[in-house]
């Protein structure tokens, strides 16, 4: 069976073979991710807990200190990655840095979606009719292709 590639290395850059529908989907998801990333800590929004995991699960005081010092930098990093993806969404060739931004952003969307779907390390108990699981599977497969391409 022939499988269409979506991401592959082309010398020092990377070729993207994404149809317009997939690019449109990402164009819709990224602003939502940006909004979630900007949610202030302590807001209680569980959707982003995997994007900003607890650094010290056994010490609330140390974790609060870590969050106080690192949160702004992490938000800036995620926001910059989202901006790089948005700027390159219509291109068919990416630099390695751009591909890394795509990987960071897609993984962040996966983490949020995985939280909403209650995906665990044991996997998912997918309902074939639930579009959330289909989206999670798509993002996982695309991210896997990117990881493979960057490693070749």
**What order do the SSEs take from the amino end to the carboxyl end, as H and E?**
EEHHEHH
Mean pLDDT: 90
CA(first)-CA(last) distance: 22 Å
Whole-number radius of gyration? 17 Å
Number of strands: 3
Helix fraction by DSSP (H/I, runs of at least 4): 55-70%
Structure description:
Helices cover 59% and strands 7% of the residues. With 152 residues, it is mainly α. Helix 1 (20-37) packs antiparallel against helix 2. It has one domain (7-150). It contains four helices and three strands. The chain is globular.
Summarize the structure.
The protein has 152 residues and is mainly α.
Record the SSE blueprint.
Blueprint: E1 7-10, E2 13-16, H1 20-37, H2 60-88, E3 93-94, H3 96-117, H4 131-150
Antiparallel strand pairs: 1-2, 2-3
Helix pairs in contact: 1-2, 2-3, 3-4
């Amino acid at each position: 069976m022939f499988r269409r590639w979506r991401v592959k290395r082309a010398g020092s850059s990377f070729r993207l073979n994404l149809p317009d529908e997939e690019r449109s989907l990402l164009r819709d998801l990224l602003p939502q991710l940006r909004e979630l990333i900007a949610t202030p800590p302590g807001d209680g929004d569980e959707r982003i807990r995997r994007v900003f995991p607890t650094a010290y699960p056994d010490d609330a005081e140390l974790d609060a200190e870590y969050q106080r010092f690192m949160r702004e930098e992490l938000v800036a990093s995620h926001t910059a990655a989202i901006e790089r993806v948005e700027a390159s969404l219509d291109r068919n060739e990416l630099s390695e840095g751009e591909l890394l931004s795509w990987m960071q952003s897609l993984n962040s969307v996966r983490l949020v979606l995985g939280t909403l779907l209650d995906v665990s390390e044991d996997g998912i108990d997918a309902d074939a009719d639930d579009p959330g699981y289909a989206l999670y599977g798509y993002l996982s497969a695309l991210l896997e292709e990117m990881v493979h391409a960057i490693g070749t």
